[in-house]
Recover the amino acids of this structure.
């Protein structure tokens, strides 16, 4: 089987998975968000988790790419194209996860028509499209036959702060919510940026190795080793910030905060929290701290996968834990949305709740998988036309 045939078959497979996701999304729109596991307590769930996750993956990729020009790091310039492609695909996926989370997607127009500039939500609506435009411009400048170094450098100086800002603004959506014990923190923004750096770089390393494996892009082993050294620094910084955040929360022994922490440590979110600590911090640091391990591609890829899993675990417990215990002052709770007349319970017991439960449903998971498949399709197509040289064109025909 030729390389082109394998490429086309892969596109067909991932395209069909994407189509399944589209069909399921149409079903969700026609039936309402009731087909998901979300409810009045958990109004944000898997879709928002994936949104935050992919914003971070995207920001990490562009930060590496733009830093190559801003700080004049020649070795990093070699991976600027795949890093920017990856960044572009990830931010598009992040936007699409918001789109499917709305239930009625055209409701996003309300944010544009009636913006509330005191809300971090509208800040995100402004900065994410700007970030996407910067990605596209940056990619265009790098793919021109004659590279305009001056324009590329100017764009890089804009791209780097915007890449940091896009994740900071997303963090402020959480960190400025006073009523959520697990979110309201001045460290939320640097935490998001740190996790964007390590997860984005980890994904880039995996993609670079895959591209090299499929002979779609050449990357030196020394560069992989150097990027792995940078990755372990990012992971250590991320781990330190998480430690500082948890210590600050646990030290006062505030009852409402301890309720959130106990749910993270020993409750249903414990696998995700300890998964982050063990898989995302301890094991990758233990591996990549030693240069001899950073020189082994298999260990670098393994560590990168663990870092991404750890950051995903962080996104899950971050989003869901604070919804588990909403703050109520002089209120009966959150309405369940239904009341079965004739039941033995009081009206209060059957129509209001103080805590909730969430479990993603099959439609949610299908839509998420469909969007992930779409991301693979976009990356494959962009890589084919942007990374491939005329000499490779001939090679693919063989």
């Amino acid at each position: 089987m030729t390389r082109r045939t394998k490429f086309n078959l892969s596109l067909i497979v991932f395209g069909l998975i994407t189509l399944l996701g589209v069909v399921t999304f149409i079903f969700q729109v026609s039936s309402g968000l009731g087909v998901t596991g979300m409810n009045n307590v958990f109004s944000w769930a898997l879709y928002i988790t994936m949104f935050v996750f992919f914003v971070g993956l995207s920001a990490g990729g562009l930060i590496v790419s733009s830093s190559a020009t801003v700080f004049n790091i020649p070795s990093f310039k070699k991976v600027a194209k795949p890093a920017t492609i990856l960044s572009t695909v990830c931010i598009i996926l992040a936007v699409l996860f918001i789109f499917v989370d709305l239930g009625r997607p055209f409701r996003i127009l309300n944010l544009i028509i009636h913006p509330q500039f005191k809300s971090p939500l509208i800040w995100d609506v402004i900065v994410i499209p700007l970030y996407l435009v910067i990605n596209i411009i940056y990619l265009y400048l790098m793919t021109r036959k004659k590279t305009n170094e001056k324009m590329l450098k100017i764009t890089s100086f804009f791209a780097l702060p915007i890449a940091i800002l896009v994740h900071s603004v997303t963090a402020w959506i959480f960190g400025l919510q006073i009523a959520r014990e697990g979110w309201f923190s001045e460290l939320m923004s640097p935490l998001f940026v740190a996790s964007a750096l390590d997860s984005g770089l980890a994904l880039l390393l995996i993609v670079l190795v895959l591209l090299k494996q499929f002979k779609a892009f050449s990357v030196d082993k020394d560069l992989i080793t150097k990027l792995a050294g940078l990755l372990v620094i990012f992971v250590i910084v991320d781990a330190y910030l998480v430690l500082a955040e948890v210590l600050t929360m646990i030290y006062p022994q505030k009852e409402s905060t301890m309720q959130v922490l106990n749910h993270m440590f020993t409750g249903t979110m414990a696998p995700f929290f300890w998964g982050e600590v063990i898989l995302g911090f301890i094991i990758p640091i233990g591996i990549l701290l030693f240069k001899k391990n950073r020189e082994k591609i298999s260990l670098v890829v393994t560590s990168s996968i663990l870092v991404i899993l750890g950051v995903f675990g962080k996104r899950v417990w971050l989003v869901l834990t604070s919804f588990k215990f909403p703050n109520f002052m002089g209120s009966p709770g959150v309405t369940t949305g239904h009341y079965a007349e004739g039941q033995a319970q009081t009206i209060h017991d059957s129509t209001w709740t103080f805590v909730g439960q969430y479990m993603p449903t099959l439609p949610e998971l299908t839509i998420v998988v469909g969007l992930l498949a779409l991301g693979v399709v976009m990356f494959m197509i962009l890589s084919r036309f942007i990374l491939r040289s005329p000499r490779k064109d001939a090679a693919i025909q063989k």
In short: The beta strands are 334-335, 352-353. The chain has one domain: 3-325+364-387. The radius of gyration is 22 Å.
